[in-house]
Design goal:
The protein is α/β, with parallel strands linked by helices and about 575 residues long. It folds into four domains: about 220 residues, no CATH class; about 50 residues; about 190 residues, Rossmann fold, CATH 3.40.50; about 50 residues, no CATH class. About 40% of the residues lie in helices and about 5% in strands. The chain has a five-stranded parallel beta sheet. A four-stranded mixed beta sheet has the order 1-3-8-7. The longest helix is centred in the N-terminal third of the chain and has 32 residues. The relative contact order is 0.15.
Length: about 575
């Protein structure tokens, strides 16, 4: 960030690096730069034309099967007392009963406390290795802020921690990081520099912001709220930000920090040094409490300002048209996703019956399977393969398994901590009534187990397609070595589908897609979000349960997750946009 001066640009700069991809091995580094324009610590008011607003439309607790209820267990123990001992006084009996209940209550409480501790240790930063290994466990993002010379200016509700929270911090989450950066830029009266992506040694994707998003649209759509420039001013590009203590790491910015943190801690550094470089910016801004205008700006950035470049839109339109057999109409969602390429003209000489399709985001890659520490029926070979993968890519988990007693694979599955396998996913779809003729688009990377693991889906639903099968070699070639751009194509196909099913509700791509469909769908785009804990209890009966009962139980479980509510306090607006700040439409 920087203040105004006659010799410098009239606004400050914020540079942001991001990568859009749906693969969780590692998140690429991102950097962002801000600079402020006045001494005021409140967001500046900017003249803008009036915008019409139109508004769019916990799992129940269960007793632990490992422990009987305190009263029941105590009663069982008392029944073993020899009868010849006679009766005790009622007062003595009452005290013993009370002590027994307290004792077993303490045991149960201790069990749950240890269970919580073990799960929390799986994400304890202290367990993360340093050096090169930390790249696999830490989300590395960078952001910079700078000040001009002259006068200077002035997180969502905590969800239950699960083992693969880090794994699911996909590059798709960079969407949220950019929107958070936009909000902070406005808060600090700064200027945003068009994001630049750092090269990722894991994905080796050289894509930059302009390779994925339309720069000019991004700048123009937000210009009434924040100034955005493409480059950091020359006089600030050569500064050694680390040497001048303008480097702020993710360890120094708590997750879901309130706006007051940035005003109290970040702004003074910005005013002093004219520039700040954030390292690890993701999830660094709370969702509540936050000023209405900042929340609204963050939503507008996510649902309006970020649009894919024409190359991605054009190829995405080809995918949608081929899955829908060139259906002769388009939706507002498709228009926003595909822009000028929403034309559904049927190719010459071809007559096709319009079709609907289901998009399935199948989260079952090898890294997902390995990080979950679950068992998927592959015997000793599977266990050895996944353990070898952990040793290379998740060394902290390997260390944890050697030094700490971790929950068993069976316990993890019963608690819904395991990703749905392709077999479980197809059983869920069949129970929900999807017919054999249903056209299914499979989104995601290579499935762990390959064709053998996908055999169950292929047998029940032969009309399966992927971006690789729908596009010719020449059509997909421009994207082949760019995982972020391939993920953008999957995002388009999932968002535009007539129905969308996810196999892991914690997936960032699935969360962003479901929010996008809610925002633009007008309540007509169903999303299937499974409760894995409840499904696990149903699948555990596979040896005895009848199909009719299986159908009924699965459908009941899915119905319970489809209830529409206003956004819960402090929850992500990208996943839950149904709130006054977000569902306003800016035409």
């Amino acid at each position: 960030m920087a203040s105004d001066d006659s010799s410098l640009p009239p606004s400050s700069t914020f540079e942001s690096l991001l990568q859009l991809e749906d693969e969780p091995l590692d998140s690429s580094s991102r950097s962002s730069i801000f600079h402020s324009r006045s001494h005021s610590t409140t967001p500046r008011s900017r003249p803008s034309s009036p915008r019409p607003l139109s508004f769019g439309s916990p799992s129940p607790s269960r007793s632990n099967p490992l422990f009987p209820s305190p009263g029941g267990l105590y009663g069982s123990l008392r029944s073993l007392r020899p009868k010849h001992l006679g009766r005790r006084k009622k007062g003595s009996q009452g005290r013993r009963r009370t002590r027994g209940i307290l004792m077993w209550s303490g045991v149960v409480a201790f069990f749950f406390l240890m269970n919580w501790w073990m799960f929390s240790r799986l994400q304890d930063p202290a367990l993360r290795p340093s050096g090169k290994d930390s790249a696999f466990l830490n989300r590395t993002a960078t952001a910079q802020t700078y000040l001009d010379n002259g006068s200077s200016n002035g997180k969502r509700k905590r969800v239950h921690r699960v083992m693969f929270t880090r794994l699911l911090a996909l590059a798709a989450h960079a969407l949220a990081e950019i929107c958070n950066a936009v909000a902070i830029t406005r808060l600090l009266n700064a200027t945003l520099v068009v994001p630049k992506f750092l090269y990722n040694s894991v994905w080796r994707d050289t894509s930059q912001f302009s390779d994925i998003y339309q720069e000019e649209h991004f700048i123009n759509d937000l210009k009434a709220d924040i100034p955005i420039v493409k480059e950091l001013p020359v006089e600030l590009q050569s500064l050694d930000l680390e040497a001048m203590s303008s480097l702020v790491t993710d360890a120094e910015v708590m997750k879901e920090s309130k706006p007051s943190f940035y005003v109290k801690k970040v702004l003074p550094i910005l005013l002093k040094n004219r520039v700040i470089h954030f390292v690890g910016f993701g999830n660094r801004l709370a969702f509540d409490p936050i000023p209405f205008e900042l929340q609204r700006l963050r939503c507008r950035c996510n649902f309006h300002a970020l649009r894919f470049v024409h190359k991605i839109q054009e190829t995405g339109a080809l995918l949608v048209q081929r899955m829908q057999h060139h259906r002769p109409y388009s939706t507002p969602l498709e228009h926003n996703l595909l822009g000028q390429f929403t034309d559904k003209a049927v190719p010459d000489g071809k007559k096709m019956v319009p079709a609907k399709y289901l998009a399935l985001h199948l989260r079952f890659e090898i890294d997902m399977a390995a990080y979950s520490m679950c068992y998927f029926g592959g015997g000793k070979d599977e266990e050895e393969e996944l353990e070898a993968f952990r040793a290379v890519h998740f060394p902290a988990l390997t260390l944890l398994r050697k030094t700490t007693k971790v929950p068993s694979a069976g316990f993890l599955r019963s608690e819904g901590k395991c990703p749905l396998t392709p077999e479980e996913s197809v059983l869920m779809l069949a129970a929900l009534g999807f017919k054999r003729s249903t056209r299914i688009y499979i989104a995601g990377a290579e499935i762990y187990g390959g064709k053998l693991r996908m055999a169950a889906i292929s047998r029940l639903y032969p009309n399966i397609a992927t971006k690789e099968s729908l596009l010719s070699s020449s059509e997909i070639e421009p994207f082949r070595n760019y995982s972020s751009q391939l993920a953008a194509l999957d995002f388009i196909m999932c968002a535009a589908a007539d129905a969308f099913a996810m196999t892991d509700s914690g997936s960032q791509l699935s969360s962003l897609v479901s929010g996008y469909r809610m925002y633009y769908g007008g309540g007509k785009l169903p999303t299937i979000r499974p409760n894995k804990r409840r499904l696990a209890s149903i699948f555990s009966k596979n040896g005895t349960i009848e199909w009719k009962e299986f159908e009924d139980r699965v459908r009941k479980t899915i119905r319970q997750t489809k209830q529409v509510h206003e956004r819960p306090i402090a929850r992500s607006i990208y996943r839950h946009p149904r709130c006054p700040e977000c569902m306003c439409r800016i035409e």
